[in-house]
Amino acid sequence: MYPEPHQFEPLLLREAEANKEGVLALAGEVAARALTLKRMVHPATEARIAQLLRSVNSYYSNRIEGQHTHPHDIERALKKSFSKEPDKARRQRVAVAHIAAQQEMEGWLSAEKIDVYAPEFLLRLHEAFYRRLKPEDRVTPEGDTVIPGAWRDKNVGVGRHVSPAHASIPAFLERAHEVYGAASGLDGQLIACACAHHRIAWVHPFRDGNGRVVRLQSQAALLNIGVGSGLWAVSRGFARDVDSYYGRLADADSSRRGDYDGRGNLSEAGLISFARYFLETCLDQITFMGEMLALDQFRERLHGYVVLRSEQSKGIRRDAELPLYHLFLAGEVTRGEFKQMTGLGARTADDVLAALLKAGLVESDSPKGALHFGLPLEALAYYFPRLYPEAAQ
Which residues, in sequence order, are CB contacts of 210 under 8 Å at separation 6+? Predict the structure, then answer.
C-alpha cells in the first residue's frame, strides 16, 4: 500500500529524455495536426459533429469498460426509449449519463476558467456522471454503493497493481495537480496530459468509474489547451485495441527498472512508453478525421449517399446534393437559400426540404429557423466510413 505521493514519481518526463525518445517531436506533430483539423470545417458544422462524437465517445468508453451498447440502443435511449431487458436498459442509462456528463463538462470549459488537474475537477466529473444514474446503477459488482463525487473510502487492488491507501488520495492528487498544472508550452502541456492519464488512473481515486473519469479529464485537458475539439476523440483510439490500452497502462505501473530508469519509484521508461502511445493514439485519430473531412472525398461520399437515398425515398432528389454540400461548408443557411440552391420550383423544393428534415439529413432548431447539416446514424457509413461502423449494422 502506497501512503506517500513521492511513491508515484516521476510524474513527468525529463525534457532530455522526451527529446531523445521522440516524444517531444510527436507532441509537436499532434498540436500542428489538431490545429489544422480544426480549420477544416465551419464552427456550426463542428458543433453537429461534436454532438455525434459524444455518442461515439460514450459507445467506445462503454466498450473499454466491457459494457457493449449498440449505437441504435444509445440513439433510442437519447429519445427516452429504453429496453425492457434490465441489463440492456442499465447500459443505455450509463451511455446517456456519459453523454450528458461530457456535454456538461464542455459547458464548464466554455463558461469559466477551469483548472482541469485540480482534484475538485475530478470530483466534479465523477459527480456529473454518477448523479445521472439510478441508485441501482451505482452499485459495484462487489455490492458497494458508489457515492457521486466522493473519493473511495477503502483500499483496493486492480489486477497486480495495489492502489494508494484511500486516506492518501487527496495528497497524491494534490501532487499531480502541482506538477501537471505547472506544465508550460503547448508541447509540454500535451506531454503532461499524456502522463496525467496514467498517473491519475494509477491512483484509482474512486470506488468505481475511474476509467471514464480519467478519459473525460484527458478530453477536458486537450480542450483546455486548444488541441482538442469536437472533431475527434482519443477514447475511440483506445477502444480500437482495448487489450493494448490496458496493457500500456499496466506496463507504466511498473517499478523502476534499475539505475538507468529515472530517479523515481516508478519506471520512467514505462511512462515514456505510455506517453508515446497516448500521443500516437491522438495523432491517429486526428489523421483519420482529417481524411474523413477532406472536402473532395467528402463530396464524393455525399454524392453517393444522395443518389442512394433518391432511389430509396420518394421525397429525396439528387438536386439536394449541392445545397447539402454547401450547408456542410457554410454551417448554416436560411430555408430560402437552401431551396433556391436546389434549382427546383417552389412546391417541389418545399417537398424536398421536408423530406430531408424528416430523414435528419437537415436539421433546424425551429419550424422556420435556419438550417444545419444533419448526421443521422443511417448516413454515417457513407459520410464518415469507419468512424462508427457499428452504427451501420
Answer: 201, 204
How do strand 371-373 and strand 362-364 relate by DSSP bridges?
antiparallel
Taking the alpha carbons of 26, 32, 36, 39 in that order, is the dihedral positive or negative? positive
Q: Which of 9, 39, 392 is nearest to 195 (CA)?
A: 9
| C-alpha cell recorded at residue 22 | 521522440
Other beta carbons within 10 angstroms of residue 66's beta carbon come to 7
Three-class DSSP category at 78: helix
Closest CA to 106 of 128, 132, 78: 128
* 185-235 per-position pLDDT tens digit: 999 999 999 999 999 999 999 999 999 999 999 999 999 999 999 999 999
DSSP at 60: H
Tally of CB atoms within 10 A around 244: 12
Cell of 12: 513527468
Q: What is the pLDDT of residue 79?
A: 94
Give the burial class of 144: count Cβ atoms within 10 A of its Cβ; 0-12 exposed, 13-18 middle, 19 or more buried. middle
> All 3 cell numbers of residue 40?
477544416
Sign (positive or negative) of CA dihedral 60, 61, 67, 73:
negative
pLDDT (tens digit per residue) in 13-44: 988 888 888 999 999 999 999 999 999 999 99
Residue 156 φ/ψ, nearest 5 degrees: -140, 160
Q: Is the pTM of this model over 0.70?
A: yes
Rounded distance, CA 349 to CA 39, Å? 32
Dihedral-angle region of residue 297 (phi above 0 means left; psi in -120 to 50 means alpha; beta otherwise): alpha
What is the identity of the amino acid at 305? Y
DSSP 3-state of 342: helix
Q: Any bridge partners for residue 14, and if so which? A: none
The rounded distance, in Å, linking the Cα atoms of 305 and 288 is: 20
**DSSP letter, residue 233:** -
What Rg value do the Cα atoms of the chain yield, rounded?
23
Average pLDDT, the chain: 93
Contacts 24+ apart (CB under 8 A), 252-258: 252/198, 252/202, 253/160, 253/161, 253/202
Determine the Cα–Cα distance for residues 200 and 117; give it in Å rounded to an integer. 9
Go through the domains of the chain in sequence order and give each one's CATH number: 5-293 (1.10.3290.10), 295-392 (1.10.10)
